């Protein structure tokens, strides 16, 4: 949550910082600000709302800002205090000489604030961050050294933070530090970048150093020095970054979400290559570091995740239990961390996260790790904090996902679960070998099937147009597609703000049916297989209450025409693989409805791509 950027070099900093913030808008976007060293002072510029408002503010100050070669910037997702100009970062100490931007939460800010007020500091904002500005300024008054002041101040801070700090008395220097929040330094030619994430600077350099917790980096245009919290020098571990900046372009699509939905066939091909070549060979998952013996001895699996990743985990449970006969529990990370969970060294704990930075999941993973369980992380970010906690790391390689609504990363997580389930079943011998061969050949056909759906997306667009005026939406499904109903509903509510809910179809009659009338759209995920007839009966019950019925189906049964007002047909597929096929039209329905309603598809209100606060 929140994004920070910093630049020091010989170029004009303002455009570099603004551009960097634009790339980080997925982390938050309710207000923004930058601080630049201009002539004799550090000037701060802030605005509420999208980044374009900050650009507008700065357009009135071009003369004073253009010469600045050093600065820091922030894009905010409010936690403490409303999104106002006063609460926007950078925050300053009382004399204005010290400026700070922060991502994270200072948990002991109230106690710090009391102490600082007693020392005469005057607080202007409602944020936790302002305490950092005053605290570091106090330490600076004692040390006259910004790096030392930061080292001393962070010893008193509890919580999570990535910080970038400048002081007017050390005008060529940027000091940055972090704990439990991401921060990376980009290395250019006589210039350095600091950011919460690499898209902020990838177009300038692909050389970078990731800061570890409690390290403090002191950066000038000629040097980067990293020290631990006690001031000991840390050797630089320079990495070549994997992302291409072209991945950040919309490539002609109106929104990133639509582009990312269209990337899904290639995302699947990408994950399968190297792991599943042909249906006749076993799945190769060298990333799983459990020995075959310990894998066979596993007595339970726990999967922890949030949001869309949680829905992928629910499908993972279904398939692993079916293929491997190991009991699997799935739990929202935010619940897992506040109860006594039972794990031992025969428990495999799987954390699923697109970003690899979600605070709830990260905390849950650390908790499970401390109890001796093997930790397997499924993530799209092999460079993330969660990846660093992993004993086994399954990188889903979906490419950078910019839209706040997760789409291609979800498909990639599902494919990873299918691969894992087949891999374990092949080692355990827990599923018929012929069945698995057929299953693998069906998996290899999935990209083409999604391409077929995308080629006929006008039908889905028409459906979205027809139902875009609704205030509520119900999705029903059973079995392995119940999480599909949840995910379809989550997509719709996230980006259109329509009240959408997913139900197990059999639960409809236990309460939700009371809501049905001729204004309520009910979408049945009706895939052929085990529970097809059951969902059909549940759909009949909804039709009998005059609901506006929509079917998403791979059935060609003529009688569906009498039951449903709108039918979206998808290609035929093995029932256990059908969540990969059925989610695509639901992503598109959500997208087109939001688009018809004129919503901000890629950056929906109140949300952020990476939720780094608990
Ligand atoms: C997905 O569309 C959401 N934006 C959100 O639910 C997300 O899946 C959740 O915050 C978890 O994020 P993660 O996968 O990065 O951990």
**Heterogens:** 2-deoxy-2-amino glucitol-6-phosphate
Question: Class by helix and strand content?
Answer: alpha/beta
Number of domains: 3
CATH architecture of the largest domain, by name, is 4-Layer Sandwich
Shape: globular
**Spatial gap, N to C terminus:** 10 Å
- Please state the average pLDDT score: 94
Strand ordering within the main sheet:
3-2-4-1-10-9-11-14
CATH fold-type name of the largest domain: Glutamine Phosphoribosylpyrophosphate, subunit 1, domain 1
Tell me the CATH superfamily of the largest domain. Answer: Aminohydrolase, N-terminal nucleophile (Ntn) domain
CATH top-level class of the largest domain: Alpha Beta
The value of Rg in angstroms is 26 Å
Low-confidence stretches: none
Helix content: 25-40%
The number of helices is 21
Largest sheet, strands/sense/barrel = 8 strands, antiparallel
- Beta-strand portion reads 15-25%
Number of strands: 24
What's the multimeric state? single chain
Name the features:
Rossmann fold, binds 2-deoxy-2-amino glucitol-6-phosphate, 37% helix, Glutamine Phosphoribosylpyrophosphate, subunit 1, domain 1, 614 residues
Word description of this protein:
This protein has 21 helices and 24 strands. The chain has 614 residues and is an alpha/beta fold. It has 3 domains: 245 residues, 4-Layer Sandwich (Glutamine Phosphoribosylpyrophosphate, subunit 1, domain 1); 189 residues, Glucose-6-phosphate isomerase like protein, domain 1 (Rossmann fold, 3-Layer(aba) Sandwich), CATH 3.40.50; 143 residues, Rossmann fold (3-Layer(aba) Sandwich), CATH 3.40.50.10490. The strands form 4 sheets. Strands 3-2-4-1-10-9-11-14 form an 8-stranded antiparallel sheet. A hairpin with a 4-residue loop joins strand 12 and strand 13. The longest helix is centred in the last third of the chain and has 21 residues. The termini are close together. The model has no long low-confidence stretch (mean pLDDT 94). The site of 2-deoxy-2-amino glucitol-6-phosphate (AGP) has 15 residues, from helix 10.
